[in-house]
């Protein structure tokens, strides 16, 4: 090998070494710059996932409670309908008796008529 070839090989090797050192230094600087940002982002990601899971659980619980409230409302509605039907059935006889008494009313002083109706109803 000629001295000029050794000179070019030495310069090429020096350039390769300088490029390698520059690349390693760039990687080290970038790692030192981005590592805290990555750590912060990873911590935020973990917190976000935890909050999301908590919200999903709360939404599921809220859905279950809402279903229970709807079922309880429907039960109250059915019970109220049954109570209304029962009250109408029980009041039917009294309503018929009141209508009958009103039809038997003969006139005169309302107080005397009311007293006679009450006496008649009580069997006096």
UniProtKB/TrEMBL annotation:
Superkingdom of this entry's organism?
A: Bacteria
Which protein is depicted? Uncharacterized protein
Organism for this UniProt entry:
Pseudomonas helleri
């Amino acid at each position: 090998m000629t001295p000029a070839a050794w000179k070019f090989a030495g310069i090429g090797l020096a350039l390769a070494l300088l490029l390698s050192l520059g690349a390693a230094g760039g990687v080290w600087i970038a790692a030192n710059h981005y590592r805290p940002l990555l750590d912060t982002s990873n911590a935020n990601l973990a917190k976000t996932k935890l909050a999301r899971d908590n919200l999903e659980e709360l939404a599921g619980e809220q859905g279950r409670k809402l279903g229970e409230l709807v079922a309880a409302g429907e039960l109250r509605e059915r019970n109220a309908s049954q109570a209304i039907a029962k009250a109408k059935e029980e009041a039917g006889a009294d309503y018929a008796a009141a209508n009958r008494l009103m039809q038997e009313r003969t006139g005169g002083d309302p107080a005397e008529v009311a007293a006679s109706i009450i006496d008649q109803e009580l069997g006096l």
